[in-house]
Amino acid sequence: MKIIYRLLNLSSRWMVLFFMLIAGITAAQVNPYQYTINKVANGTKGAVSSAHPLASEVGLSILKKGGNAFDASIATQFALAVVYPGAGNIGGGGFLVAYTNMGKAISIDYREKAPGSASRDMYLDKDGNPLLNLSQNGHLASGVPGTVAGLYASHKYGKLPFAALVQPAIELAYKGFSITAAEARSLNGSKAAFIKYNTMTPAFVKANPWKAGDTLVQKDLAATLTRIRDNGMKGFYEGETARLVVEEMKRGGGKISLDDLKNYSAAERVPIIFDYKGHTVIGMPMPSSGGLLMQQMMKMIEDRDIASMGFHSPEAVQLMIEVERRAYADRAEYMGDQDFVKVPVKRLSSEGYLKERMNDFVPGKATPSDVVKPGRANPESDETTHLSVADQYGNVVSVTTTLNGGYGSKTVVGGAGFLLNNEMDDFSVKPGVPNMFGAVGKEANAIAPGKRMLSSMTPTVVLKNKKPWLVVGTPGGTTIPTSVFQTLVNIIDFKQTSTDAVNNPKFHHQWLPDQVMVENDFPKTVQSSLEKMGYAITNRGQIGRTEVIKLEWKGKKLFSIESVADKRGDDHASAY
Ligand code: GLY
């Protein structure tokens, strides 16, 4: 299809109209003013599961018109940037893990970078005290956005023209869409912050409170998306959009420069791949800790018969808490951007090392975190969002993307209509000082110009019999790897349906603080058993919003696809 456009040498604007005529793709297939939320959908040809019904349905419409899973994931992400402004984004960053029908495992890193003028102690006052408000809110909190570069990089694997994948988002932004009750609550809750951290009033602020069914129109965002549609990456990283970003930085004391934007590039990385009980798990490498943490946690339980302990038995939960504790201690010490620091990945993932890590595990007794130091390795709101996609050709794509906190820095680029991230807070602003997720870090994750901040995002693909089987991921800050870990163990070891694996209550331990966070509906009996073993338990409301796609194969033929969306939000599963 791409070749036809090149041969016809059509300008991209006309190309989109031409495309719509011959392929019939219009966003009108998705009614933005009237839609329902599905938690499970079944099909045989394709599926999308994401945080918003309109975004999932945009992705599905791309699949129905012959696009592949990469095309659908790009269109879904652009749509999320409009309909789910709290986390869907073009002003943030993310990671993609995919497995193609040619048997190739792919990971693309489009994590934000520290601006060129950033410095190690930029969030410390003259006495060395952390200034967390600056790393978490407003202009100075933003890293150089990576999302548009990442979508462009993943388009190399797509089939349809890039412009056609942006178009549905333009229409949603320009004409508006009905917001959900959850979005209304969330926008109302952030109104004061939007007023405080913006130099020009954004579309998210209105005199009267938002309510479910109100129409959110984002004309400036539509114009930015149109520049991206017509000029590709340059429509974001150069020209008018870049100029507006830098003007915004000047008005609000931020650091992102024209050069920072022009020099940003996404990077294709070698994915983390490991075996768990005969399944192949494909995960994201540094600068996300997600893939390595998953490998550490799964390998530390692999030789124990967790299935016979029983789902949510105190024994099984305790074992999982203790492997989470040990993996996160290593995260704090060793993990960071491998373009800048040597991360001892080989050692941290070796079977011998992981066995040794469990030497001091005592069943029935909490190991205090001040005893569990990071292992010895030679020097070498939590608003994020996830989407899972599968197509009829056998490609699967798993993407987690974020602004970091809900609505990121709360700063909207004046005249360009998109929110900037507050991802600088994912660096360790000072050794031992917890970030907004309570996570601590050291030298490996210190700020440096052009460096990417450590992430927890864990887009994951699992193969069974060499065929894609599960496409999984979730938001949730540092709880992301533990949620994906528990979802996979629920399916593989406890033989749960995808729906149960996603919706069953989760728990989380991240070494420091030394406490187990549990969801509201976590069983009270298990909680009191854990307290008797010496664990401090805190309530965390809800953990994650996991999206799972499960594929069944009959030999080499794709037999069925199940798409499941988390009960915890507006998440929506689509399939056909
Ligand atoms: N901002 C959340 C993460 O990247 O882990």
Essential attributes:
576 residues; alpha+beta; 7-stranded antiparallel sheet; 19 strands; globular; binds glycine
Q: What is the strand and helix layout of this fold?
A:
Layout: H1 2-8, H2 12-23, E1 40-43, E2 47-50, H3 53-64, H4 69-83, E3 93-99, E4 105-110, H5 132-136, H6 147-154, H7 162-175, E5 177-178, H8 181-189, H9 191-196, E6 215-216, H10 219-231, H11 234-237, H12 239-252, H13 258-263, E7 267-269, E8 272-276, E9 279-283, H14 290-302, H15 306-309, H16 314-334, H17 345-348, H18 351-357, E10 383-390, E11 396-404, E12 460-464, E13 467-473, H19 480-492, H20 498-503, E14 507-508, E15 516-518, H21 524-533, E16 537-539, E17 547-554, E18 557-565, E19 572-575
Parallel strand pairs: 15-16
Antiparallel strand pairs: 1-18, 2-10, 2-19, 3-4, 3-11, 4-7, 5-6, 8-9, 9-12, 10-11, 12-13, 13-17, 14-15, 17-18
This protein binds glycine.
Protein model, in words:
With 576 residues, this protein is an alpha+beta fold. The protein has a domain at 2-268 and 383-445. The chain is built from 21 helices and 19 strands. It has helices spanning 2-8, 12-23, 53-64, 69-83, 132-136, 147-154, 162-175, 181-189, 191-196, 219-231, 234-237, 239-252, 258-263, 290-302, 306-309, 314-334, 345-348, 351-357, 480-492, 498-503, 524-533, and strands at residues 40-43, 47-50, 93-99, 105-110, 177-178, 215-216, 267-269, 272-276, 279-283, 383-390, 396-404, 460-464, 467-473, 507-508, 516-518, 537-539, 547-554, 557-565, 572-575. A 7-stranded antiparallel β-sheet has the order 1-18-17-13-12-9-8. Strand 12 and strand 13 (467-473) form a beta hairpin. Helix 3 (53-64) packs antiparallel against helix 4 (69-83), helix 4 packs parallel to helix 7 and helix 14 crosses helix 19 (480-492). It is globular. Residues 1-10 and 20-28 have low confidence and may be disordered.
